[in-house]
Predict the structure.
Amino acid sequence: MATVRLQKINKAYIKDQLVVKNFDLDINDGEFIVLVGPSGCGKSTILRMIAGLEEITDGKIFIDGKLVNNLPPKDRDIAMVFQNYALYPHMNVYKNLAFGLKLRKYSTQEIDERVKRAANILEIGKYLEKKPKELSGGERQRVALGRAIVRNPKVFLFDEPLSNLDAKLRVQMRAEIKKLHRELRTTMIYVTHDQIEAMTMGDRIVILKDGEIKQVGSPMEVYQRPANKFVGSFIGSPAMNFIDGIIKNGEFIAPGVNIDLNAKDRLTDGLEVSLGIRPENIAINQGNIEAIVIVTEPLGSDTIIHVQIGKASIVIKHPSLTILQTGEKITLQFESDKIALFDKATDEPVDI
Ligand SMILES: Nc1ncnc2c1ncn2[C@@H]1O[C@H](COP(=O)(O)OP(=O)(O)OP(=O)(O)O)[C@@H](O)[C@H]1O
Ligand SMILES: [Mg+2]
């Protein structure tokens, strides 16, 4: 087990083109950290720098307090699990699990003990004689996890390990990796572009955009108090709605919207803001905001309703089955304590 400290990390593959910018993060011993962000934001690059597979342009990485910038990957005591499993096709599962240990010259007995222990934890004991091609995607991914576990590393790194699996298996493996973390209590750094994986798995989530940290916090913190519009729109599904408007006499004003924020003394007149409201915090058939129904999507347990308010397109998540006609006029109410405001000029949240 180990702490991982990333200090002002910068990375440029091409001179002067930074793909990771001033990345600063302290990861606690035994923590499950998720790096999440859109494609190309630098997630894999950060993971590969921690593993030692990629040179660091600037900054320092410490594992357990020890500077590792110049330590080769094999000496960092880190195990990495990739999206594409990377199993040896001609070896059976047992040999796939044992291979890395053999290279490191462990005794046959030690290898056997470690392989059996990992197989036991992952419940793959009955596949040990099988070749990867005889396994399902989920079973293969479990073997890939096993190969990391047998090494008993200080830190596990995961790079989108579930993205090749179908939706149902992904949910199952998500739970298994969480369980693995509870059992092993090893520090884990997990990369994904899937905000649901981030929300359900992370002790803390690091949200990245264009190589920069946009927010670090627990799943509930980033969900309830997004530090900027990007985080608000990235975390949560369907995404947070935004309406651009202006503050006047403590009220939020936009075409078709007039909300008294009861904050006359605190909000500057004329301030240009974006109002953020989550789809589940909008009630229908009450309040005084007029909207026109564009389309309804019944999901069984709840209904997604797309509406238009003035110029803004808004998505509502209604907690029961409702069928509304396209073009129908309805009224809406935003839950007042769930409204977020962001300053248009700075993208920072505004206290209400
Ligand atoms: N070997 C490389 N040489 C040059 N540029 C690279 C290299 N690897 C990555 N990049 C660039 O660095 C940026 C970050 O890439 P990275 O692979 O870290 O993103 P990512 O967040 O993992 O994306 P994805 O979700 O698609 O896997 C991208 O703009 C990418 O094009
Ligand atoms: Mg990647």
